[in-house]
Structure to design on (286 residues):
């Protein structure tokens, strides 16, 4: 799933490639992907792309006349920039992985695609990003929150720190992969309870958020959209590295699996050498 660093890099890529161009047309191939109906997709035609940014993990392509194409790429979505399209014919609804296509006036543009059968990519054409329900509920940006705000937000939700870190209403931008990385750097168990974290642990966790996300943004910016996934994987130390040695202490990276996701951690760095029980109903080591 694209998280804060990748969405930031995609926005930067669009600022370089698309800003200043006019939209030729906005095509919707997956009707379920477009969550708004007013303004209609045809309202984007002829408008200039004036900026690209993000709200947490939401990508925001701003057009002149106060129109925004806001996109949440979900778990399997991605943006593919095309210098030229193979055909000028409109997309056929329901055909292939392309959900939305934005054609620009110089023949270039980008596709929003989604792999797999669970279609959760969401696109909104709105006059204000705050009209998007997911955006209006976002907490402070994870990279912008100072220590006092960060501590207050984490303590506002009592629960396991892994889940609280990925709650977008608490902090915006952190997902499954980078939360694993942040907790590894902070040397915290993913199941540590937020209401039991000391001031020192919160400060360490806040610093780890800045370190992990800041480094990922630095590595991602300037990369082509097609290269961002590989860049993300290359920078991970524990996430998706089950069975491999921890690059810090050499212990074996372990995994806890859930119904539709998993987390990875290093026992040597994070749980005092004790493995966490890999069963949802087990008593978990904290």
């Amino acid at each position: 799933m694209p998280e804060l660093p990748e969405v930031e890099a995609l926005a930067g890529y669009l600022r370089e490639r698309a800003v200043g161009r006019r939209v030729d047309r906005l095509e919707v191939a997956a009707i379920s992907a477009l969550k708004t109906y007013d303004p209609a997709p045809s309202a984007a035609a002829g408008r200039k792309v004036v900026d690209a940014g993000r709200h947490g993990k939401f990508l925001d392509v701003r057009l002149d006349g106060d129109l925004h194409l806001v996109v949440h790429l979900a778990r399997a979505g991605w943006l593919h920039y095309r210098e030229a399209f193979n055909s000028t014919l409109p997309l056929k609804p329901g055909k292939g992985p392309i959900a939305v296509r934005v054609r620009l006036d110089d023949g270039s543009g980008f596709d929003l695609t989604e792999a797999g059968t669970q279609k959760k990519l969401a696109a909104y054409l709105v006059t204000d990003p705050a009209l998007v329900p997911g955006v209006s509920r976002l907490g402070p940006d994870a990279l912008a929150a100072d220590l006092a705000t960060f501590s207050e937000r984490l303590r506002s939700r009592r629960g396991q720190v892994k889940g609280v870190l990925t709650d977008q209403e608490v902090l915006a931008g952190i997902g499954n992969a980078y939360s694993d990385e942040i907790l590894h750097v902070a040397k915290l168990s993913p199941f540590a309870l937020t209401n039991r974290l000391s001031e020192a642990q919160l400060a360490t966790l806040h610093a780890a958020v800045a370190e992990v996300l800041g480094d990922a943004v630095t590595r991602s910016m300037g990369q082509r959209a097609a290269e961002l996934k590989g860049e993300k994987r290359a920078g991970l130390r524990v996430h998706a590295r089950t069975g491999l040695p921890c690059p810090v202490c050499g212990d074996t990276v372990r995994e806890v699996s859930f119904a539709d996701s998993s987390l990875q951690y290093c026992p040597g760095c994070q749980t005092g050498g004790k493995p966490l029980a890999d069963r949802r109903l087990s008593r978990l080591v904290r």
Notes: The first helix runs from residue 4 to 17.
